[in-house]
Amino acid sequence: MKLLGSRRSARVYLYGSVAAVLGTLALALSPGKATTLGHPLATALGTNSALAQATAGYPQRLDPTINDYSGILLPADKARLRESLEQLRAATGIEAVVVTVPSTGMYGTGDRSFEVFATSLFNTWGLGDAQRDDGVLVLFSEGDRAVRIELGRGYSRAYDARMQLVIDEYMLPRFRESEYSAGLYNGTQATIQQLTGPPPSTVENLPTQGLAIGAGALFLGGIGLFGLLKRRDFLRPKCSSCDVRMQPLPPESAKAHLSAGQCTELQLGSVRHNVLECPQCRQIVKRQFPNFGLGQKYGACPICHFKTLETVKQTTVVSPTYSSSGEAIAERCCRHCNHTDETTVHLPRLERSSSSHSSSSGGSSSGGGGSSSGGGASGRW
C-alpha cells in the first residue's frame, strides 16, 4: 500500500510540474490559450482548479471552509468537516480553512519550503480576524508528502506544540497508510478541540491531584478535558513499585496488550489508548480516554460495546426549517463486530448565518484580514 501511495505521489507531482511548464509556455505564446492547455491534464487528474492556476501564483480561495484541489476528501468526511468548521466560525469567530494541493511546486511561487508556502498562502488569503489574528490553515500536499497547520499571529507559541501533537498522533499514522481523507478529518477535528479548549498556560499549570474536580469543571465548560488529558505527567504516571516514570509503548507493541475491540478503536482513532511500561520492573499500565475530536463520528456499539459504531448513511425524512427541527433515518455499522442497525436522529433547526458563503466565478481569496508570522507545526511521511 505504501509503494502504491509513493507511485501515486510521484505521478501527481510529475503531472503538476508538466502542467505548470505547459501553462508557462502557453502564457508566453498566447495568454488567451494558457488555461486551455492546462485543462486536459487537469481533467485527467481531477484537479481542474489547482492546475488551471499553476502559472497564477497562489491558488484562489473557492470555498469559505474547504478547498480540496487534490480531490482526496471523501464526500462524507468533507460534509462533516464543513459542518464542524462552520460551527467553529459561528460559535467562536475563528476562521479555519482546509486546503489540499497536488504539489506546492506546481504553483511556481518560488517559496523555498513547504512552510513558507503555507505562511504566504495564509497571508494572501488574509485568514482570521484582522484584530485578533486567529485564523487557521490546514494545508495538505500529497506531492510534497507534507502537512501543515498554520496559525495566525494571535496564537502564542505554546499552541505550536499542540498542533504538532495533532499532526503526529492524528494525521501522520493515517497518511502513512495513504488514508488521506481519514487523516485530514481526524486531524482537523482534533485541531478544533485544541483551539476551543483552555489555553496552554491554563492547562499546563493544573495540578495532577486536582484531576477529579478540574475535569468536571472543564467538562462543564466545554471540551477542556481534552487538553488536560494531554498533560505529560498525567499520561505518564510513576510506577507503583519502583516510583519511576513509566514510558509509553510504541503503537505496535501496545497492541499486544489490547483486546481486538480496543485495537479497532485505536485504529479508528475513536478512543485514545495508552499502554505504559515501567523501564525497570516491566509493569504494564493501561489507560483509555475519550477522543473528543472524533466524538461526532463513532458511537458505542450496542452489541460489542466498543466505540466503533459509524453512521454510513443518513436519509432525511423530515427536512428541518428555520422554525422547526427535522428527522432522519441513520444506517449504522460497527467497524468491529459488523453489527448493523437503523435509528432515528433529530436534525437541528436551520440557523441563518451572518457571514456570506457565496463566491464569484473567479474565486474569492479574501478573508478577514488576518495574518501569520509562521506559527504552527508541520509533518512529513
Automatic annotation (TrEMBL):
Domain named TPM is located at: 66-193
Compositionally biased region (Basic and acidic residues): 345-354
- Organism listed in the record: Shackletoniella antarctica
* Residue ranges of the region described as Disordered: 345-381
Q: Which residues form a coiled coil?
A: none
**In terms of domain of life, where is this protein from?**
Bacteria
| Record keyword Mitochondrion present | no
Please report the name of this protein according to its UniProt entry. Answer: TPM domain-containing protein
**One Pfam family cited in the UniProt record for this chain:** TPM_phosphatase
